[in-house]
Known about the structure:
five-stranded antiparallel beta sheet; 22% helix
Amino acid sequence: MKIIHILFLFTFISFTVCHASVNDFCVADLKAPISNSGYPCKPVASVTSDDFVFHGLVAGSTNNSFKLGVTYASVSNFPALNGLGITAMRVDIEEGGLAPMHTHPGATELIIMVQGELTAGFVTPTSTYSKALKPGDLFVVPPGMMHYVLNTGKGKVTAYVAFSSEKPSIQTLDLLLFGNNLPSDLVAKTTFLDLDQVKKLKAKFKGSG
């Protein structure tokens, strides 16, 4: 009896794998309800070449505290990425601007330099890895590492970024610490920062407490 169960399971798995291999892609049907496994596929008959092109990686607004502009291509606005485990982003940073310390849990990040000079780096409990990048350079940030980028040159920086995730999350240290409603004295005590400085940063990042 056990052998029959094993043979049945093997047959079922084989059928599932073979069935999955038939689907070369799964362009998301954004009009259909999303489930825990993602969006369902559009009928292949309704898929066109236009589904595999995205025109939205244009310069984003840099009118913010970080002088940083980003635009994303993710499954929510580029349905062809559905099930492929990848996301793209364009980054524009004005002179003197930066992307502050942040992390993408569960996603590797690949930075592709196009214009300007960018210093990128990530930190571990024992080491810091940092490099000044020029056009044509690549820099990889392993998943979950706290990292940053700075415009360390003259003029504007433009770069493209790829993530090994359809929906990479982001946790920005400054916003987590100072864009919240935690009491300022608690933030000061747990970060060893001066209370007045904490209040100043909370005002900058629209926190309270």
